[in-house]
Write a structure and sequence with these properties.
heterodimer, A: about 650 residues, alpha/beta, Flavocytochrome C3, Chain A, domain 1, Methane Monooxygenase Hydroxylase, Chain G, domain 1, five-stranded mixed beta sheet, 17 helices, about 35% helix, B: about 250 residues, alpha+beta, Fumarate Reductase Iron-sulfur Protein, Chain B, domain 2, 2 domains, two-stranded antiparallel ribbon, 7 strands, binds flavin-adenine dinucleotide, binds FE2/S2 (inorganic) cluster
Amino acid sequence: MTLYVEGDPVADTKAPDGPIETRWDRHRFESKLVNPANRRKRTIIVVGTGLAGGAAAATLGEAGYHVKSYCYQDSPRRAHSIAAQGGINAAKNYRNDGDSIQRLFYDTVKGGDFRSRESNVYRLAQVSVEIIDQCVAQGVPFAREYGGLLDNRSFGGAQVSRTFYARGQTGQQLLLGAYQALERQVAAGTVEMHARHEMLDLIVVDGRARGIVVRDLVTGEIATDFADAVVLASGGYGNVFFLSTNAKGCNVTATWRAHRKGALFANPCFTQIHPTCIPQSGDHQSKLTLMSESLRNDGRVWVPKEKGDPRKPGDIPEGERDYYLERIYPSFGNLVPRDIASRAAKNVCDEGRGVGPGGLGVYLDFADAIERLGKDAVSAKYGNLFEMYERITGEDPNEVPMRIYPAVHYTMGGLWVDYDLQSTIPGLFVTGEANFSDHGANRLGASALMQGLADGYFVLPNTISGYLAENSKLEPVGADHPAAVEARFAVERRVARLLNIDGDRTVDSFHRELGRIMWDYCGMERTDEGLRKAIELIRGLRDEFWRRVKVPGSADDLNQALEKAGRVADFFELAELMCVDALHRTESCGGHFRGESQTPEGEALRDDENFSYVAAWEWSGSEAPPVLHKEELNFEYVHLSQRSYK
Amino acid sequence: MNLTLRIWRQTGPADKGRMVKYRVEDVSPDMSFLEMLDMLNERLTLDGDEPVAFDHDCREGICGMCSLMINGAAHGPERATTTCQLHMRHFADGDTIDIEPWRARAFPVVKDLVVDRTAFDKIIQAGGYISAATGTAPDAHAAPVPKADADAAFEAATCIGCGACVAACPNGSGMLFTAAKVTHLGLLPQGQPERRERVLNMVEAHDDAGFGGCTNTGECTAVCPKGIPLTAIGQLNRDFLKASTTSAR
Ligand SMILES: Cc1cc2nc3c(=O)[nH]c(=O)nc-3n(C[C@H](O)[C@H](O)[C@H](O)COP(=O)(O)OP(=O)(O)OC[C@H]3O[C@@H](n4cnc5c(N)ncnc54)[C@H](O)[C@@H]3O)c2cc1C
Ligand code: FES
């Protein structure tokens, strides 16, 4: 079977050149502006109210544009960004520990295993500094030192302390800052808020994104809405795995529907698996809970040396424990990057040395830290995390080592965008986790919040006005435009089809099974054979879904099963593309580990000769194979090197 | 374990609604409360009944989307715990559990256990922010904030906007929610310029949205999953008094 065909390369035509430090400034200077008096006549739809969407909608409203903001929750304040715990990076160098824009840029390119664009990452590092200023001005209560200045910590193995945080609730505080700015604009009349609405399709007119089809989740009404430009800030697609640390509603629908309308989807297989999550406790499990990475600063990871050791952890003597991270990576020890820690945990569990239900867990032990620092000091640092763990598992980490296991956490892939964050459909912009841009094959801790806010507050508001200025005379489009009618009909037909199948399996049962396939074959380790098998299984399951799914209730009111069914249907298509992407990339890089491409010591082996590109996929219908467009990556400032944490 | 559930079913705002009894079997003590409801919904679906609608999203106690009165207590029997973080090990085999939506004038029922909490957004629109347009901020270190103030502001800012305070209050008051925001912003130097107008406008929006007045019963703080203290309301009252006597309005 032909899994894909290769098309023409894709180029970032907006990419600026010249010295990297001046690129963003020059680009902004060269882009056109919209006269303030004309802004209220220009309309922008923003789908999503997380950091990326909320910040963008607020900023565009402040600038005087007419913004229409959408989210599926009952309030914009509940977007999944709220759940981020650890912190946000910025190259402020407040610690005077040698940090700089240059260093953050370098760390991000290297951390992404050389699969991101230098220009974008440099801009991200530059803008990071302004984000902190902005958030403090809004009243975000970051942690402070006794002198009243902002505190920083080192995060995710970084050698400098550049992470700003608000206890274990950084995402919440940043999101509330953006949400409050957004509500201020709602009050000012520049932003129209549409909560409990789900975007189900994109409306493209004359090759440009001009609107969306939405379903009112309370009344079930399917309607169309129009604008001069559309922004998708709809978050990541980790829920394709069913079990992940994402909120239950996180989905790929908005970006997938845009993909089907012509937007290229880049690097879909780049997934981040976080090493420290609470393991699954049974088949009823509906989501996985992250335990902050900071725990690895003091906790020691181990498993018994013996396979299937039935003893309680406390009964296993020191000499019969394997502190495998310290053993394999003596210089980084328990602080190796996420992808490495995750894979090492999987390996010891595959050997039969895992602990807890099903042998899918490893210990994260604080006994040494408690002995060294005292129980009070450990609780001052990690008390709330220990409580959260105890609430879920019923075990106290002060007494028994925590059990942790890797879980899907973040998706680096997303819609392909150029330097302006514009997709391959003119007028369609994509920000935050929904785009593919800045993290390459692996995202560093505390960098997603940075990217979401960089996109939302600083990058998009500049680039989108350039687009609007250049397209000052767009024809008005209304609900009766043939493209709008056709898109709305298609959505109505699909909703009706899902309800009419009336089969004998629930949506969740399909989603769980799909997730299992993805986890087994497109998770922490991928192989040619496994991925081919996964594609077969996904296709079979998808056919079965469309024959046997049972969606109760009606289309005319709040119907949560129907919402889930639509999302799962899109996950099936995405899942297949993820496997094709993973199959075609025969190298290992960052979070993408191909069993066939490893060093003799079992570490990821990149193949820069053949894979130093972004894989941007074009949809060509459900019956035809997707088309691969490559965007070559060039490294002028950071030299390609193999990561080593030994 | 096996349980009897009595769940509020209401097809929509126009329906009167009623309690309906269900049996659930083989509930694992490791399940979360919402996973137990998922299990019920799976069965209802296969039996051809409509599943029970309830709000939830993050399932880790931070988004504020989940709700539920469980045996008459907002978010159930555990202190400082949202419904999504509540686990079945806190119940016993054979228990009967009553599950109802938040009930308050300002939070009309949408369907079954789902209510409309947009009234909270209206309170924030009235002034729950600091006006700092993007790009106009001075350096973050320009105004140091004493650690004690920053920590106290953070404590108030941890409110997740779930509405348990309103559901627990005999008056259906949203004063704890409003006070948490007034306190958070009022403790920071950045929040001073708008402090007086903020409290007046937010309290007015609170009253207009149909929330009841506060009579200091303290039920709100007892159920608050983030433990927002009653002293926040004291702070709001002081700010309100000061603002009403000195405001230009
Ligand atoms: C548990 C956890 C902890 C994390 N901790 C950190 C951390 O410490 N530091 C860090 O940097 N990153 C962290 N991350 C990652 C980071 O939180 C996310 O990547 C980031 O917040 C995503 O922001 P976003 O604005 O792109 O999307 P989101 O916040 O996910 O927002 C998506 C928005 O889109 C809306 N939406 C989605 N689909 C539709 C649709 N079809 N129609 C209408 N609306 C739709 C939603 O309603 C929502 O408003 C963490 C992630 C998790 C899961
Ligand atoms: S579901 Fe988010 S707080 Fe309960």
